[in-house]
Amino acid sequence: MEKIKLVVVDDSMETRNNIKMLLSFEKRIEVIGEAENGEEAVFVVKESRPDIVLMDINMPVVDGIRATEEISLSVPGTTVIIMSVQGEMEYVRKAMTAGARDFLSKPFNGDELARTIIKTYDLESKRREKVSVPRQHEEIDSKVITVFSTKGGVGKTTIASNLAVCIARSTKKKVALLDLDLQFGDIAIMLNVSVKNTISDLIKEINQLDSSLMEEYLVTHFSGVKVLPAPIKPEYAEYITGNHVEKIINALRESYHYIIIDTSANFHETVLTSLDMSDRILLVSTLDLPTIKNVKAGLDVMETLHYPKDKINIVLNKASEQYGIKYKDFENTLRHPISFYIPEDSQTVITSANKGFPFVMTRTETKVAKAIMDICSKTTNELSGVRDNKPAIRKLFG
Fold this sequence. Notes:
- It contains 17 helices and 13 strands.
- The protein is α/β, with parallel strands linked by helices.
- It has two domains: 4-128, Rossmann fold, CATH 3.40.50; 143-397, P-loop containing nucleotide triphosphate hydrolases (Rossmann fold, 3-Layer(aba) Sandwich), CATH 3.40.50.
- The strands form two sheets. It has an eight-stranded mixed beta sheet, sandwiched between helices. A five-stranded parallel beta sheet has the order 2-1-3-4-5, with helices on both faces.
- Helix 2 runs parallel beside helix 3, helix 3 (64-74) packs parallel to helix 4 (89-98) and helix 10 runs parallel beside helix 11 (269-276).
- The longest helix is centred in the N-terminal third of the chain and has 19 residues, at 110-128.
């Protein structure tokens, strides 16, 4: 049974968390996003296209009534349920006029909440029911892109999460994001997704794994990217093997056009498996000597593994020559050209991570976002055999 995708909108974080907790045991309902005001709600709903929005009325910036009207007009496939306290019936009537289909009076319990969501969804489904032509089975040419470095703290997770979102938005293809930093993975936090199951839960059913079972363990980010989070506890990592990773990637290949993998900073068996199975490796470095030394050692290992040189793209993060090392000296040391440059922009990156909104969605005008978009377009074009005649990113930053 397909899950009901839900976005929760309330200016109180405590209320949003309580609602997510109440719904955490509901198998039919999946919370895929949240917002703290009406303006943010409209943005999230337009991006994620949920089935249901649970909307509070009184909120700052844009209230629930205006947000309901905007969503009803611009995203007609999404249904709004209004939340209100006793005594706000006049507001509720206005919200229903704006397009809301039902309302809940605060406070409510878990049964009442779930029952209202399911009833509203089922009624709307019946209203929209019509004959549709069955879709032909699509043969998927899946591509695996692994973001890797032999040094921690260089920005792998930031690049992987924003790249996955950018690919999903620009190609309109199905994208999965796999967190293989098995001890200290941060993808779920970076994207602010609710974690119910992780890769360590999945391997308990690894022998029954297929694309259908895989869907039950993936978490949906409001951009459409599906995430398989890292284990909650570091000690669970030791139970995950390279063989497990191979089966997981093969299962994802059946349904997803792009599989983006974030990794730990070592050549553990699980990381080697993902590197072996990758169509493209984005090797991330910064311009400090310890990182350059480690990245050079990593390239030497890949050379002994006979990886084709064009399989590896060097990504220079926080790119700047002001600290004394020139780009040309860096390339000469590695004996490998720099493919992509990402400029330093700590304010955008940290704010984005803290809010759980990827900057390729919210800060598209920044140079750091444009750099990720460049990686996105060039990599997807190359992997799909499309010639890219855009000027090199070097001209933007160096």
